[in-house]
Amino acid sequence: MAKNAVQIDETAGIRTRAVRGGTSPDPTTGAVLTPIFQTTTYAQEEVGKHKGHAYSRVSNPTVSALEARLGALENAPPAVCFATGLAAETALFLTLLVSGDHVVLSRVLYGGTVRLFQQILSKYGITASFVDTTDPGQVREAITARTRLVFIETPGNPTLELADIRAIAAIARERNIPLAVDNTFLTAALQQPLELGADICVYSTTKHIEGHNSTVGGAIVTRDEGLLDRLRFTRKSTGAIQSPLNAFLTLQGIKTLPLRLKQHSQSALTVARWLRQHPQVERVHYPGLTDFAQRDIADRQHLGGDGGIVSFEVVGGYDAALVLLRSLQLATLAENVGAVETLVTHSASMTHADVPREQRLEAGVTDGLIRLSVGLEDVGDIIADLEQALAAAAGNVAAQVETQEEEVAQWAGVN
Ligand code: PLP
Q1: 190: Cβ below 6 Å to ligand 1?
Q2: What is the enclosing helix (H) or strand (E) of 129?
Q3: Catalytic residue IDs
Q4: Of 156, 146, 58, 137, which is closest to residue 102 (Cα–Cα)?
Q5: pLDDT tens track for 244-256
Q6: Is the full-model pTM beyond 0.85?
Q7: Closest CA to 149 of 108, 196, 96, 202
């Protein structure tokens, strides 16, 4: 091991693992940060003899450092990192499934995952059932003799409904079927699916993990070494590895992941409570609200916070939602979540545009639903922005109110 290398094991806290896990100062230069190894290939000492890397479609030292860090967050071997979250999902499905196989998925799911099954994998004879995974019994009922994977997203994008990972893992295990959890919304900082019995965690590192709106990336974490080998084989065969620059930036982002998620969660809870009392808001979805439908699951499963994403419907439906989105001045209308900037998305026309309308409505993704990724700006400023946009949506621009610090503090203590 290199001089000054720091040994981090599973007894270290999540913040220590986020800053230090899996990496050491560069052995040749002492550089504290793992450098960006911007290289295609690696000199070989003789045929078949190299220092661990041969070609950057197969592996790259900066990407390997990120993989070790992501594994360390979940007491798992190094992860396998991909160009995007969807590349990670595609590699998982190509690795585990063949023609004729069937997958059970959450009905509330990132729209790109739905599209991947319905418009790509279906062409190869792979079928999917989208079920209400708030009820583990529905997972049990949907499993057939050809089911080879259960894939859940909790909290689900964008209505945030929750699935009980421990209960669904038990059902999948009875039938010898692996359970994969898309843990993008909470990350290992707030939810540890492998500890709850899941076999595989899937991530879009594009979101909270990198957290600064500067990269796209994906990862799979599992303790199954055989599956990791197969995923690396799929990655090299399909050419889906992450770039070294993105891996470097993601490694820096992870260092503050637990701290950011703590603040994202606090601010999101304050915003959710404020939205819920607003007369122009019809419905608010946030697992931290005491009357959230699966609050009991959040209490058991979430580790000290419910994440930074809130979704809500405004009075007046689609038309009012469009005025609100047009009127926001601080929050940016953009497709992403989990970054330091507050972002707002119209799910029906953006992230879920390719999900058939019937299926989208069944999953609660109504035409008026707005998804808000609460950033790290001062929460009073985020609320003031929402206040003036809601006033505009109500056709009452004159009623714009400047939200005072005391008002924000008042809502921070409620619920
Ligand atoms: N999983 C979830 C929950 C997402 O929200 C997204 C993207 O929005 C993805 C996966 C796909 O990730 P990427 O955009 O990095 O391909």
Answers
A1: no
A2: strand 127-131
A3: 57, 110, 182, 207
A4: 146
A5: 999 999 999 999 9
A6: yes
A7: 96
